[in-house]
Design brief:
By secondary structure, this protein is an alpha/beta fold. The protein has one domain. 32% of the residues lie in helices and 16% in strands. The strands form three sheets. A five-stranded parallel beta sheet has the order 7-2-1-8-9, sandwiched between helices. Helix 1 links the parallel strand 1 and strand 2. Helix 2 runs antiparallel to helix 3 (95-107). It is globular. The two termini are 29 Å apart.
């Protein structure tokens, strides 16, 4: 069984959902330390040809994990993010179909940043036709750090293959995984162009940019690396 793991990030890019698409079981790593340098509480959309950052103000103490980080709703960030999304994409082909979904999901009040991101990403994945089983690490009795935690999580859910992001190569050892009966692989995702509201394609925007321009169409069916074609079915 193929497993992939990632912290719950805010409206992440398509590579994040590709990891979900590639897995039988996806684990939200929600019980690790919050980092302001990671994309747990921010992401980028396009306003015209300009990159605009959506950032959630949060309340936390150093060392808090993602389940302990609270969104500062009193600062009005929900209304601001929804306004920025409307202004950026009101002319997009699928705005009328996509915006009400985002408005509903973002507009709810959640107990933690992790809860917000898990709810958002789970529903977006479902609408994109991604069918992996979804589990929260906080619901799995596992110990360890970095590589050992990943291996233990994989084994806890019955995984024998782990698809990792490239950023973990500096601390993961293929042999360590193999010794525990887990094959280590790395995601082969690379940004691919799709129709945007800009003349030149801008990669690695939030998934919001993709669904506003392309709708809830699975972007990975026919991706090069699986059967040699692009998401629109054409050969590369």
């Amino acid at each position: 069984m193929v497993v992939s793991i990632h912290q719950p990030d805010y409206l992440p890019y398509l590579g994040y959902f590709y990891k979900m698409y590639s897995a039988d079981t996806f684990i939200f790593l929600d019980n690790v330390q919050f980092s302001s340098g990671n994309m747990h509480n921010w992401n980028n959309i396009l306003t015209g040809s300009a990159v605009t950052r959506l950032k959630i103000p949060v309340a936390y103490r150093f060392g808090d994990n993602l389940t302990q980080v609270a969104c500062k709703y009193e600062l009005g960030w929900v209304e601001k993010h929804l306004r920025l999304i409307r202004e950026a994409y009101s002319g997009a082909p699928f705005f009328d179909e996509v915006y009400p979904v985002l408005e509903d999901l973002i507009g709810r009040e959640y107990d933690s940043l992790a809860d917000l991101n898990i709810c958002l990403n789970t529903e977006i994945a479902r609408r994109l036709g991604i069918t992996c089983k979804i589990v929260k690490a906080s619901d799995i009795p596992c110990e360890g750090k970095k590589e050992s935690l990943v291996i233990n999580l994989c084994r806890a859910v019955g995984g024998d293959c782990y698809i990792s992001g490239l950023g973990a190569k500096n601390y993961q050892d293929e042999q360590d995984f193999a010794e525990q009966g887990v094959v280590l692989k790395y995601s082969d995702f690379s940004p691919f162009p799709y129709k945007q509201m800009t003349e030149d394609f801008v990669p690695n925007m939030s998934v919001v940019d993709y669904v506003m321009n392309c709708g809830w169409r699975n972007p990975y069916v026919g991706k090069k690396g699986t059967d040699g074609t692009d998401p629109d079915g054409s050969s590369r």
